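Protein modeling request. Please complete all fields; requests missing the sequence field cannot be processed.
Requester role: graduate student
Desired output: 3D structure, token encoding
Chains: 1
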Amino acid sequence: MPDFVLTSTAFDAGGSIPKRYTCDGEDISPELAWEGAPSGTASLVLLVDDPDARGWVHWIVLDMAGTASGALPHGVAASPGAPAQGRNDFGRIGWGGPCPPSGTHRYTFTLYALGAPLALPGTPDGKAVRAALAKAQVLDTTVLEARYHRGG
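Delivered output (152 residues):
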């Protein structure tokens, strides 16, 4: 069985997130791709947070099709045609890029392979999604971590 992995063409694992994807740039979501989701995956959920800011949530993508491989393009909009997205800790639906007050922060992009969709109503926040994930049938997870440095 292949390893479940999450990658980005925008940055390398452990590398720096380009300014374009942050509040200092265009503040658009980076392209992401995955492969190796386990057999039986019914749904995929992406949660992007900043562990250096007590888990500040930057992006939630909900109940994507449980495909073994797939991708999210850069610049995913918060529109009806886009994947279902939750409310980030900036209070907006969709992507909210790195924006630390100063210094270097780490950002974790965690992709969950689930045995069933979370099927949360509306645009749930990080607390609701984390609570649902704690009760969900998580088949596997993969994490892509990167960092962003902001002067100040």
